[in-house]
Fold each of these.
Amino acid sequence: MEGSFGILSAMIFTPLVFAGLVALRPTREAKYVALAGTLLAAALGLVAATQFNWTNGDTHQLASSAPWIPALGVSLSFAADSVSFSLILLTLLLGPICVACSFTAISGRERTYYAWLLVLQAAMTGVFAARDLVVFYICFEFTLIPMFILISLYGSTNRKKAAIKFFLYTFTGSIIALAGLVYVAWTHASASGAWTFDVDTLERAARATLSRSEQAWVLLALMLGFAVKVPLFPFHTWLPLAHTEAPTAGSVVLAGVLLKLGTYGIYRFVLPMCPLAVVDYAPLIATVSIIGILYGGLICWVQRDVKKLVAYSSVAHLGFCILGMFALNSAGLRGSILYMINHGLSTGALFLLIGMMYERYHTRDMRELGGLAAKMPVWATFMVFFTMASVGLPGLNGFVSEFMCLMGVFQASPNWASGACTITGDATPGATFGGVLGPIYAAVAGVGMIVAAMYLLYMVGRVVWGPLVEPHHHHHDADTPSLPPDLTPREIAILIPLAASCLWLGVYPKPALDALRAPVEQTLRIIHKANGTLPAPVLDVPAEFRDAPPAGREEGTR
Amino acid sequence: MIERLAFLWPEIALFITTCVVMVVGLSRSTGVRRLSALITAVGLAAALVLAVATTPKAGQFAPADGQTLFPDLPVFAKTLFAAVGLLLLPLLVGTVDRDDEREIAAGRRAFDPLRSNRAEFYAFYLFSLTGLMLCASASDLVWLFLALELTSLPTYVMVAISSRRHRAQEAAVKYFFLGALGAACFLMGFAFIYGGTGTTRLNVIADVFAASGINPIALAGLVLAVVGLAFKIAAVPMHFYTPDVYQGASPSVAGMLAFVPKAAGFVSLILVLGTVGWTHGPGGESGHSLPESLRVILWVMAALTMTVGNVLALLQSSVRRVLAYSSVAHSGYMLVALVAGPGDGSAASNGLAAVLFYLLAYGVMNLGAFAVLASLVRRNPKDGSADEIDSFDDLRGLCATRPFHGWTLVVCALSLLGFPPLLGFFAKVPLFTSGIAAGEYTLVVILGLNSAIAAFYYLRLVQMPLLEKPDPTTPVPEPVGVPSRTAAGLLSAAGAVVLIAVAGSLFDQAHRASRDPRTVAPARDAAGEPPAAPPIAARPE
């Protein structure tokens, strides 16, 4: 943790500074200033990525810290392990994309728009980088305001209702989560006599001092806050509305990063703080996730609005993500984290494509659109590509993570652990912990993959292929004189990095999976230690999985 | 007796200023009359300096002086009251006599001391603040009662003269009668406490309670005192006057009403409940529990106050009534920390510090919301008459048309909501920490849910000015012609942002101020400062 280099702080504060610049400079410069800010932040991210020690991904690196409110033990501290750093990189990648995709879509009040977009990016980076609970919570909450403004000022017809619903749902959830986090802080304070909100300390304190039932309460409180954000099944109703009404960049940020705040929160806080309760509640949460997968998928199938369809598909996809996480084994957890990134890339790109189509046709209704491949071949190519990535076509990113999630769930059963698949041989069958899910969960969730293929392919088939259908009142040249029928170089430039990432993570995910191994195993060690179990020997696709775990690592090693 | 004056230099300064303002405000010369606000400000600033410089702290006086319950409370409270009083002053400027002065300046009529209210207005404001400060230094029930009355009585008059409209008179009468009822309640309570313990000295009462327990008469007295003081803080069931009074009074005076009586009520509650000390009762060994009956009353009061305040605020269409009900709700939040008590000695578990810090934050951020309402009028295009703005529609697009006012409102509403990273959030976190530390989980969850309910109406206060387009058919609200009110609003919004940088040290001060020396375990102090409670403050056994 030595060396307060502060490059993470720089990544957080650069967009803020540029947000100030946007507000001060004339309106016509706003978009360029915003682009410069996000590009600079992305460049900082690249520099940091070279400094980042990916092999020790469980160590929190690039740390910087400054005391803030000593009486409450709050300090402004930032650091990232490879999980948070991957998500930061995703945020930084989507930053310039969101700015660039709004160049033609946003007209009027541009300064407000770009300034808040930059503030949003700063807050999101802050969430992933925060190593202090209060700082985390502040950033987590502060994402609401920019998003609220982006939706209610720049959204479509029903935007005000959507914005308020979005705000109230997430605000309510996170207040309860705050109570849970404060409870954890208090148990630490009453045990040690000093208040602190340092994440490391509190995680250790929580699992050391909380009883099983206390952990259950903390888990429920935190899950309430994070599940709304994810969103898990009963709390998902704000999402389709917010997605549909938000401007394109808003949807991209929402799908790409904001939803990940919830899953990241679960990974970062719920798993290490309540390792006993996590095992108890895994079946319940998994069931809810599966309901989300199937229910979300079925709703997608009957959607006529393309954007709403992709929005509901997020509900289903993030169900997979949570399901994999609660498999509580290496495959599931790594798959889940990779899922966060992959979903951000492919669904973000789908929202971009729908936005581009909407700019040209001013409708998203599948009944009014069809066979656009004839008119917009480049657009259609990307559309098919990202849909396939989203469906989980082998060779693209979605497949790897979805497969790992399902495989993790499949293996996460006591039977599997005590079965004949022992590799290392030294595990005593009775003491191994295979997980509490199992093949039946995986099988039911697997149906969700088929449903996903059905609705996404149906949408592509309808919109991209077939005879050309354009809206009746569509007078292309009159409506948008500045936009050619097919994609402009700017739009292609936006999509290329996303496509490249999808392809890279699909064809050669090993570096990413390697980078995620150390933190995931760290988390698993925590869970196993608390439950007094040994990690189950598991078969895993990538061969590197069979490597001996790094010896001599203690829980909580920095 | 004379050494007691050492406690009172800030109050003496305010009293002298009051006398000066009373005379100056009646001067025949317009220029001299105009000075009264300035003189008031100078008096308040002097009181602020004197409060910091001369108020005795723990260790500077003997237990015989009577200030042993919370020896550091007066210095913090008086400084806080003087500072917020200074912030409130620019809001109050121009409340009375504006039309009269205009007529006099135009030569339409001569100055008539009988019609002028300026002298009384500022004098009563200073009287009220004097009473407020006296509450904080009270060591005796009689003193506390007189101080509370000195705080309240001037406010009744201020409500009545704050506006020429009949509604103001109605509000004043309502406020007065219900206030008298509240005063009767806590006077009766104080009498019962005296009957039960044989003394009016707070520290002696505490000793009697500690030595021989709380007898039924004294308990009845405590309950009555709490219910009576509930009027001051506008807690259920004594909250009914709030919306009518806030709406009837001019918005500037309403802004003052939201802070001054509330602060007096909470300081008095801390002192009165301090006598039973959070050290008895079933949770006594852990050092933070009131007698069960009182705890239940306060618990129910807190839960109801939060919920009633927030739910009724949802239903209002008048912004001032929303703010009035939200003021009720904020009292409920603070009651949560009051139930929690001073905790185990660490700052974050100290509910009393949370109350004091919340008072500070509430005083700063609430002022901005009222300042916006007080500094704008909507002119009727037909007859040119000006109406105070009061509906949500009046706020439409304010950030575009009146950016200073609009942004003030946005920042203050978000801060009142407790939205991070504004001041209101940092004020709310200690409420959570102290409540949880005291084991009041249910109450904390109710607090959380209420914060979420509050989001509904505070969000409207953000949305209307920031996101709605101004209505082209109605005229843009005009400044009322008192620039200092806009300045007060801007100061308040700036405070809600800037004070977060020093929130740590401010909270630390509040923590130090509210440590009950009897319950402190100095080693458990998170702030890390050396144990500050010398043995002189310890209760003789």
Amino acid sequence: MQGRPKLFTSYAADAAIFPTRTQKVLVGLGVLILFLMPFDIPFISGPVPRAFPDDWAIIGGRYTILGQIPILNEGIPLIRFLGDGNWLRPMTEVFIIATAALGLNILAGVGGQVSLGHAFFMGVGASTAAVLGGQSSEKLWGLGLPVWIWLPGAGIAAALVGILVSPTAVKLRGLYLGIVTLGLVFIGIHLSRVFPQISGDTEAGRRYPEFDIRLWKEETPLINVSSDDTVTGILGLNTFEVTDRQKTYFFCLIVLIFMAFLAKNLIRSRTGRALQAIRDRDIAAEVMGVNEVKYKMIAFAISSFYAGVAGALFASFVGKIAGNQFNLFLSVEFIAILLIGGAGTVSGTLLGTFFVIILPELVEKGTEWLAEQESGITGAIADFVLTEGPGDFGPVSTANVAPGWALNVFDWNIVIYGVLIVVFLIFEPLGLFGIWIKIRNYWKGWPFTY
Amino acid sequence: MIGELLAQAGDIGFFSRLLNTIVRGVSIGGVYAIIALGFVIIFKATQVVNFAQGALAAAGGLFVSFLVFDRPDQASPAGITPGTWWRAPFAGDGLPEIGEQWASIVFVAFLAGLLWSLLTGGTIPGKSLLAGMAAFLACRWLATRQGFTWLEEPLISLIIALVIGVGAGLATGWRPSNRLPIGAAITFVAMVIIAALDSTWIEWIGNLIIAVVFGALLGMALERVAIRPMVGQPLFSMAVITLGLEIALRVFTNDSVKILQRSVESPWSAEIGNPDSDGGFSLFGAFYFWSYFMIIIATLLSFVAVYFFYRSKLGVAMRAVSFDQEAAMAQGINVGQVFAIAWAAGAGLAVLGGVFATQPPIEATGAVSATTVLVAFRALPAVILGGLDSVQGALIGGVLIGLAEIFAGEYLSGYVDVLGPGYQQIVPYVVMLGVLLVRPFGLYGTPEIRRV
Amino acid sequence: MKRMRWLVAMVAVLSLFAAACSAAEDAAETATDAAGDAADAATDAAEDVVEEVTGDDEEEAMEEEAMEEEEAMEEPAELASDYGVTEDTIRVGMSADLSGPFAALTSVIVDAQVAYFDRVNENGGIAGREVELVILDNAYDVPTQLDNYAELSEESEEGVVMISQSTGSPHTSAIAADLADDDLLAVPLSWYSGWVDPDFGGNVFELYTNYCFEGMNGVEFLAGQSEAASPTLAVVTRPGEYGQDGAAGAKIAAEALGLEIVYDGEGAVEGDDFTPIITELVAAQPDIVWITTAPSQTAQIIGGAFAGGLTSAIWSGSSPSYNVALLDTAVGPALDAAYFHSTYTALWGANEEPGMVDMMETLTERLPTANYAQADTFIVGWTEAIFTETVLRAAAEAGDMTRAGVVAAANSVSVDFQGLAPDQQWSGDPNDFAVRESYIYDVVLADATVATPITEPGSSGLVLVEGPFVGDVAASYEFNEPCFISEG
């Protein structure tokens, strides 16, 4: 079978979650890298960390073979910076937003029902988490239940609301549906104002439960996620610090992987195929015996479940959040993620989320870097792009941040975000996933590509 | 609550309050209707919901505000009267004042005619009228700025303009039986009437028209750059493109607002708290801003204009395109041109709506603010309520939503404890949801026919 | 074909390794000498060597500039330091709203700080070190604020030693507990009375008075101005720490002075349409109104109330409720007739104190394009910078520029605002050290030249009526806990 891709000899092989070996390897590698990223492990990052204090330590020590490769001692910068605290947070945010985006992908990408109300369902999830897991006080409702109740509970509550909404959604088509779900977002924010007992203060919000894993309401958690810890390593050779940020990162990563496999599985199931049929031509699907009302309801329920879980994760990750955070811009962000990543595919959704969340950070870092350039080609570019004082010209101002021409880099970030949505849709309607497919196809036929 | 209302009903204050509320509701609804109309025109032709309407609306307010620059920080080039930069080419020292006055009237009419002829594709008498106006303007410019003393007398300019205009018409095959382009003529007559009233009115309306033209050009540019390459792609992708445009454009409009309050300086200018020019009048103890009525007039005028527009040759083409794109193409209709015109008209209407959204009752300051861009999102329920592809739906939906919002705000204000602060702002969405449950395509929208 | 591809890949990988090995060999050798715990230091040294090898061209060109700068700098003092302070720089962070709803205000404040520290650096810096401002945008968004905090609080050279600006009440309260954990200092751009909380009060340094005292002073002042014998009060505020803290202050004053509250709109201001509030205000016909909102909302509410027939009331509100730029709009006359602006600091050109003269000269020179709409806001940034400099200098003097050292210094210093604001210190009981003075200005439309650049003579149209002003209510109030505690 070697060398003949896409040749499947059984139905099961064709419908496998990862039909090719390359895919299995790539996914495995990706997951491995994601798991190793938060640590300063010499394989992928930085100078010899404290995790390996001894020179002869098994993998990273200086006298070992790996230790002789200077580039490993110096660190590979691309991954190295992810070891820093300030890259961990955006990455964790990527996992959470991706969880929600996976839900919208099932509804919009697979099922063709475009919803601008995803932020609303996230809000429902967050509110449920607050009531189930939060601490009660005079003005606040909260049951203080453990995470294994409030996290799925948030998803289920959101799914129920999704089912409530779906009869309306089944009646409406296309853009009408989009705008009606947009209405849900406004109504949701208003409800958060009407019920401060659930959402807390209108502007400051309330504290959300932490990820600490408890059996029930006992004092010391089973697994402590919300504070720093010292962990004894493999074979008891060494100990290393694990911060709460790293733990949150893992918690969200595990949830995402679980949900992504679920989504991947769902797409290849009977439900997934039914949804695709509805997306492609709803009336034809009905003629073939697909129950449109039922499957649209299922799609809404599943997508809202994902949104609810992600909303609870997001609220808990941020710690203190107000109801008006689940607004139209968040909804639009999901649409952008789907379209930039490539609607309908799980890997596209993940890529899109990474791109949309990390890009602003890169633009800021890039501008900082550019501002340091004094000479050479980069210096010339910097001179052209940056405005460093009065009388200088260039679209990006580093001299001051006050409004007016030569916008500051933060404003440019928003412009770039908007323009990228446009550019991606015009030039690569299939998104990042489409680009990946093109690259893959190029190499697949190499050197006989044209 | 009903008991309370009945108890009040005997009182004149009750009716006065009711009347005031209705007028405010209708005028706020008028702004929604204008913007909704922009949505509808674009949707009918291109099947795209243009989410960038809000940014265009804010840009409209800013255009007018920039044109009315009389602020020392925006130092104008020497010799230009603040607020009327476009009059400057015709302002000369010691020349007959009347020539300057006429020139500015004609200039405004020229722009209005240009816009109309852009929108309708232009008729021969229209073109000849425009040629005449252009000739007149050129003469006045030569007389005042270039020192052609023999042109000083405005009458000579007028005669030259007539000769050139009629000549151009005859040369291109003018037949007297052709109707004059209604828009240009109406604008011209209106300008003359207004000029007789007060010159600040022509100046401001001139600025408004220029802003609408700018907005239309911006809309055309957006269509050309972002929408045209997407023809044939999924409709939702196109709608999301406009969302991207909105995000990007909004940065620029908001940034302009942040520096200073960008006042639109309307001629009925309200100065709230100044008893000499409070910008309105009292009736039965309730106060009415002039802007309420200006908005209603503008709304009616734009709907009349669209009515005539849909009757013009290009309007028919547009309706054909919205009915069946391929069939229209087969009939030789230039679909690309129709798209461009639809975007120009939609963007122009957004600009118009945006300018009036800076006036009471929406904005007390009379200035563009960071919330002006949100007016399009406030108008969205109106569009959906009326039906995405219905012109009369936009008018009725806009007014209904405006009334619902204002009535809820005025008469339920005692129940804010239960309803939550800012409750009146979600009333439009609740009304929209309620109506859509009964009529999935809005009040006047065309139901989609589903075929295999 | 497949084998061919493998071969190409292997060759490429090997050549990469070869290149990497030869380039960094020297560095690796230098590093091998050191052992054990000194491994970190050795790596640093190795990095230095590499830098010297690679970056010589550019450095030569810059050397002359560097020499000049070094002459101006005093000799760096030996200091204890942990994060954000190195041999030659002190990193100070800001997480400010630069693209959100308060950007117009905040960006001006940030610019004033930047101008201030540019001058400090030109005069030799602090303890021989240059102050480097790390400016981040929080977009008035709590999650972004937390991202920013993670970046600023990082426990490495990339971190900062203190945070001289943290915009927003909810945003600062979201990081308050972490500030205490990390022993990091922050100056909130928020005058919430809850910043003296014992849990994090040692780390959050609110400058000037707070919304609550301001509300008491404002209502007492208005009651004195009103012609009515026993004026009726209306309170209109936003929800949350900002609005409801202001409302709490106004209500405390109302109770102490025996004023009747005819309309209580605490937390009612939401969004951009205020029909119900205006309806209720007009129906209640109060004599005085206290308002705690955003400027555009103030304009809408006052404009609507005037048009609705409430013309006799006099108004005042928390400092952020008003913006000089509003005078340029249709509500200008209404503000002129009825509004008193309350602030925490003296305003641009309001006195002849040395601090004022110094600030005006420096900013006129450095930010010549700013106008009178922005001038008054500069003072907030300038005084924040004065606080920051005072604290850093105190820490340097004590020889401890660790984060904890800076916090300790801030808790013991007394800051002299040179006549720009009441002098302030933070040690002891909040009831003793809390500043209770506010300044009250009358709005005079005829004087205002909002758009004039500050390089030319002009005015923001504000005339001082009382200030520094402490009412009887504020003076006798026992300040033992925040006036308003949010539901979170």
Amino acid sequence: MNKKVLLIEDEPNIIEAVSFILMRDGWEVKTHSNGHDAMDAVRRREADIVILDVMLPGRSGFDILKDIRSDPALGDTPVLMLTARGQDKDREMAERVGANRFMTKPFSNADVLDAVRALVAEHE
Amino acid sequence: MSTSSIIGTRIREKRMALGMRQTELASAAEISPSYLNLIEHNRRRIGGRTLLKLAAALEVEPTLLSEGAEATLLLALKGAAGSRKELKAETDRLEEFAGRFPGWAQLVAALHQRVETLERSLQNLTDRMAHDPHLAASLHEVISTVTAIRSAASILADTQEIEPEWQNRFHRNIGEDSRRLAEGAQALVRYLEAGPDSDAEVLSPQDEVQAVLAETSYYLEPIETAGEPKAAVDGTLEKLSAKLESDASRGMLREYLDGYADDVARVPLNDLRGAISTLGIEPDALAQRFGVQLPLIFRRLASLPEDEVGPVGLIVCDSSGTLLQRKEVAGFGAPRVAGACPLWPIFQALRQPSAPLRVHLRQSGRENVTLLAMAAAEPVTQATFDQPALINGYMLLLPVREDASVPTVDVGISCRICPRNACAARREPSIMSEVF
């Protein structure tokens, strides 16, 4: 069975492009595009890895990640964080709340793919 | 400034005009003739009792000898000396310097003030870049669009045997996103270029509004004389806001003008003039006459033309102590926004909003000027169970009055430039502590 990725991102064309490259690589891709009920999506989808944007409408990616980490059933899901701000402050914040990796926009498709593969492999 | 505006020189001129000899004046002032000689040549700083005695002997008001441009100049020179202590400017000979080289002294003071203005502008500019939500949002938009384009473009470039429908879709996305990117980039450039001219000061919105109001002397005739004050707000705003750089400052000015119109509606100009002619400039009596709170009367008095009511200053702060308005008068200085001297009665009024205060104020560095200060506070929002009312403080500054029942209080401007060494309220060392 294919491994499942949950992509939480609010920019539709980024969703489309990232979904496409992951599907081509053989992943099953689910998407979600706002912060409000992102936790419901994380619980429902039971993904092998979550790609999480920091700036989401409704709720920040940092807050969502905190909830993931404090949920006993989901706590050790690998999370790749995406942000448009490359500041050290954001990177530190991501590490503190428990991101497995942090990637700055604009990223390359290959980097996303490598990161997703590596994080899932590490986790197994 | 002419040489004659220095205290010592003025004393000398006055003495010679009276045909008085140094020894006579010295004995009248109970100082030695040689000390008087040093004073007259601006080689000794004087103040306090000696100044009062000399003034009495010369039969002039002490302020005539001390007040005026040179007090401001000396204060600015002290500030300049304090800002670069390591250069060890000869501050003990400050008055001599200002007296002997008035032009150079003015230049030093002006350059120091320029440096301070530029530093403040730089700070504002840095704040603007770091905390500007519009800039942050625009950049975020540009980065997001670039990310989408990069991703889609590399799919088209790198994917072998891509289905035509996917190919079309990514082509379309790139087209859409590149249009968005172009618009976003243009908006960003427009925004950055719309900043003030490189030569102009970068002012905070509050500073801009204060500058515009200061030009009107705080008297807004169209609102004062309109049949319906509120109706004159839009026109006044339009006229004044030509000089404002930002929407933020226009919004702040509108708020001020709305408040001004409300005040005028409750205490109209002609009624106020009539009441002043019978009651005098007595805020408590005026407040009773109009059935309003003291702060409203303070604001109304501070908005009347100076040729009608004399110099009237007004300081307004919120409950964090941040100064919202500074209408200054000679003899009382205020920092630009925050960091004012906690001894000001306005802050005491905030702590006891129902107990207004009236004191004579003497501000350090301007010891020879005493002002009558009245402070009061009023709630500016409606109290609810969730949020207590927010309170603003108001301090009216009037010329001193002959009234022994009013206590005199010594205060500073702001710790950094305050020479009062033994002060319980000091929160940071003064850059001028060595000067005195």
